[in-house]
C-alpha cells in the first residue's frame, strides 16, 4: 500500500478520537469500551498493526533527530490504572532511547512550590529532534488540584490572585503556552486514556489478586476513585478549554489495552508524518568531503 493511502487509513482510524475544538465536546460522546468496530477476535491483527506502527514511528523519529528542527511533546493523562505506563512501553518500544525523554510528574516538591505552576514542566520540555513524553503533566494543575482544593492552598499563590475564575485562567494560560510551543516547532499532542469506572475496578482487583501486580496496588488510588465524577468533570473542562488544531487532544477509549495502544501509536505517527520530516540534504562541499573520504578509505595504503 502506498504511503498516502496508509496515512489516509490512519487518519480515518483516529479522527473520531481527535478533538481540535472544545466547543461541542462532551466526554460522554466517547465510549471507553469502543474498539472502532474491531471485535476482540481481531486482537492479534491489531497487535501486528501496532508492531508495524512502532517500526514506522522508529523511522520517523530517526528523521526527526537528523533534521533537528522539530520536537514532539506527547502528554499522557488518565485516571489510575488506565494504562499510561504500558502505553509508553509499547508505543515507544522501537524508538532509539537517545531520541526520547520520559518524565513522570508526581507530587510537587518544596522547590517546585516556590515557583509558578509551569516552572517544573518547562524545565523538562523536549529538545529539538526529540520526542518528550510527559507521564502526567501541567494538566494536573487543573485536574488533581481542581478536585482537591487544599492543594491549591499549598501553592503559595498570593490570596488576592486566587479568584473564582482561577480554573478558566489556568486553562487559558495552558492554551497560550501550547500555542507558544507550537510556534517554536515543539509540537504538543495530548492523550487522555479514557477508562471506565467499571474497568478501573477490575484492574484494581487484579492488582490485589495477582502477586506479580501487588506492588502496583495503592490505597490512595482507591480513595481517588471516590472523586471519579469530579475528575471526569475536570477532564471535560480541561479538554474543552485547550483542544485546538495545533494542540489537539486524543480521547482514547482505554478499556481495551490492545486498542488504546494502537490509537496512540497511530496518533503519534500521523502527527510526525504531517511535519514532512526529511534527512538533511548534503551540500556540494560535504559531497566532496564524502568522495575524498571514500578515496582515502579504499586507497592502496588503507
Ligand atoms: P504509577 O502509579 O504508575 O507509578 P502515577 O503517575 O500514578 O504512576 P503516583 O506516585 O502513584 O504515580 O502518583 C502521583 C500522584 O501525584 C498522583 O496522585 C497525582 O495526582 C499527583 N500529582 C501529580 N502532579 C501533581 C501536582 N501538580 N500537584 C499535586 N499532585 C500532583
Ligand atoms: Mg499511581
What does this structure look like?
This protein has 302 residues and is an alpha/beta fold. The protein has a single domain, classed as P-loop containing nucleotide triphosphate hydrolases (Rossmann fold, 3-Layer(aba) Sandwich), CATH 3.40.50.300. It has 13 helices and 6 strands. Strands 1-6-5-2-4-3 form a 6-stranded mixed β-sheet, sandwiched between helices. Helix 1 packs across helix 12 and helix 3 crosses helix 12. The model has no long low-confidence stretch (mean pLDDT 95). The structure holds adenosine-5'-triphosphate (ATP) and magnesium ion. Magnesium ion binds next to loops. The site of magnesium ion has 3 residues, from loops.
Q: Could you give a quick summary of the protein structure above?
A:
The protein has 302 residues and is of the alpha/beta class. It is built from 13 helices and 6 strands. The protein has one domain (3-297): Rossmann fold (3-Layer(aba) Sandwich), CATH 3.40.50.300.
Keywords, separated by commas or semicolons:
6 strands, alpha/beta, 302 residues, binds magnesium ion, globular, binds adenosine-5'-triphosphate, 49% helix, 13 helices, Rossmann fold, six-stranded mixed β-sheet
Q: Number of helix segments?
A: 13
CATH-level-2 architecture: 3-Layer(aba) Sandwich
Mean pLDDT: 95
How is the CATH topology named?
A: Rossmann fold
The top-level CATH class is: Alpha Beta
Structural class: alpha/beta
Which bin fits the share of residues in helices?
A: 40-55%
**Main sheet attributes: strand count, strand direction, barrel closure:** 6 strands, mixed
Q: Walk across the major sheet and give the strand order.
A: 1-6-5-2-4-3
Distance between the termini: 45 Å
Q: How many domains, as an integer?
A: 1
Radius of gyration: 22 Å
**What's the name of the CATH homologous superfamily?**
P-loop containing nucleotide triphosphate hydrolases
Amino acid at each position: 500500500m502506498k504511503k498516502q493511502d496508509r496515512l489516509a487509513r490512519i487518519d480515518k482510524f483516529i479522527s473520531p478520537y481527535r478533538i481540535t475544538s472544545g466547543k461541542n465536546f462532551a466526554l460522554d460522546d466517547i465510549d471507553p469500551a469502543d474498539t472502532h468496530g474491531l471485535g476482540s477476535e481481531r486482537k492479534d491483527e491489531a497487535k501486528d498493526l501496532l508492531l508495524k506502527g512502532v517500526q514506522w514511528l522508529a523511522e520517523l523519529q530517526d528523521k526527526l533527530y537528523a533534521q533537528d528542527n522539530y520536537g514532539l511533546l506527547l502528554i499522557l493523562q488518565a485516571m489510575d490504572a488506565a494504562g499510561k505506563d504500558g502505553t509508553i512501553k509499547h508505543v515507544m518500544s522501537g524508538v532509539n532511547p537517545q531520541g526520547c525523554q520520559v518524565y513522570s510528574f508526581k507530587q510537587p516538591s518544596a522547590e517546585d512550590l516556590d515557583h509558578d505552576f509551569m516552572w517544573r514542566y518547562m524545565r523538562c520540555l523536549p529538545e529539538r529532534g526529540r520526542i518528550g513524553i510527559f507521564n502526567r503533566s501541567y494538566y494536573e494543575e487543573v485536574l488533581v488540584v481542581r478536585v482537591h482544593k487544599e492543594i491549591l492552598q499549598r501553592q503559595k499563590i498570593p490570596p488576592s490572585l486566587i479568584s473564582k475564575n482561577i480554573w478558566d485562567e489556568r486553562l487559558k494560560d495552558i492554551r497560550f503556552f501550547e500555542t507558544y510551543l507550537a510556534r517554536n516547532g515543539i509540537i504538543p499532542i495530548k492523550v487522555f486514556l479514557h477508562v471506565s469506572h467499571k474497568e478501573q475496578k477490575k484492574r484494581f482487583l487484579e492488582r490485589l489478586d495477582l502477586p506479580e501486580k501487588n506492588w502496583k496496588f495503592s490505597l490512595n488510588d482507591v480513595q481517588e476513585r471516590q472523586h471519579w465524577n469530579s475528575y471526569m468533570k475536570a477532564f471535560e473542562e480541561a479538554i474543552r478549554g485547550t483542544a485546538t488544531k495545533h494542540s489537539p487532544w486524543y480521547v482514547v477509549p482505554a478499556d481495551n489495552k490492545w486498542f488504546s495502544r494502537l490509537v496512540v501509536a497511530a496518533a503519534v505517527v500521523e502527527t510526525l508524518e504531517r511535519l514532512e520530516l526529511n534527512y538533511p540534504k548534503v551540500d556540494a562541499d560535504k559531497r566532496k568531503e564524502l568522495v575524498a573520504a571514500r578515496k582515502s578509505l579504499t586507497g592502496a595504503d588503507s
